[in-house]
Amino acid sequence: MTGILIKRYIAMIKGMDWVLFGAMVALAVISVLFVYSASYRGPGQPMYNFYKMQMIWFLVGLVLYLAVALMDYRRICQWATIWYAIVAVLLVLVLVAGKEVYGGRRWLGWHGFGIQPAESAKLATLIALSYFLFHRTLAVRRGFGTVWLALAMTGVPFVLIMLEPDLGSAVALIPICFALIFVAGVRMKHLVLAAILGVALAGIGLPIMWKLKEHRTGRRNYQKDRITVFLHRDFDPLGAGWNLNQSLIAVGSGGMTGKGYLQGTQNLLGYLPRSVSPNDFLFSVIAEEEGFVGSLVVIGLYAVLLFSGLRIAANARDRLGMLLATGVVVMLFFHIFINVGMTIGLMPVTGVPLPLLSYGGSFVLASMTALGLLQNVWIHRRIY
Q1: For the chain, first and last CA: distance in Å?
Q2: What is the tens place of the pLDDT at every residue in 335-372?
Q3: Per the count of CB atoms within 10 A, which of 1, 41, 45, 328 is most buried?
């Protein structure tokens, strides 16, 4: 029996999408190299060991990746309600007993070890929505109730994450939800109506939430300031606009081939703050040191991930696999588009990390688990 299982797992590993796996590993290597660079201060100078922790997270993530890839995704989704409930409880715990950093409660910590449940919430919500939509007939999916139930499922983690507050992670749930209900076959008029109502509620709710927070804390709301900086580039250049302005200088000064590895002056001299360069603004470090060519390599690797994901969705053996693969692709695309966009001034700074590159254990593990799920759908695809 054991021998049969071993042969089965070996066959599944051989059937993996190795192009997808190779792009993931390449991005992981680039991540470790440039997280090191973002922490570098010069020869003989002390530096943070972020790159060592990043390597550990990637090794743990690889174990999760393989575990998720080799278990049939239908079995994983049978626990969708449990995953969703666990994440909801963790998000509530963050609000009650979470660690406060930079004016927000986003972390749960135990003896120096911390997790950010918002990152897991994206994947858990994706799985729960996919399983929910898979079990509804076409006639039911095209009804108005399906859209509102899907939005309600998304709304619970969305509200809890917004209360932390973490605007970037909360907003990431929206394109995942709308992409899944669109692929599931809902009527377009229902989708458009839901989008219009969502925009209207956001236009009313966000200013109210920001005012309440400013009143409660007595401080300006940094999320509002970030949007103001995006609309008015000269707003508070030494405060709220500092990170964006330094990022633009770093990206622009990289030129075609960059200044060289460990030679980025914006990063090395600390103009691009070390509190953000290894995570939210790691793309700026890459662009400064490796220039347009290096940036293009990174974008190319992401394109491989995304197009592989679309191919996997198209070849899934059932609607559940198609929904899961689509959700993962949309989640990855959202993070890539927003993060790269904000480093070059095309999007507001929202604190959205870059998949497989930005420093951070919670997001690395969530990203690699999502890619393992994508690989899972490919391994268990229908064979033509």
Answers
A1: 29
A2: 999 999 999 988 888 878 999 999 988 899 999 999 99
A3: 328
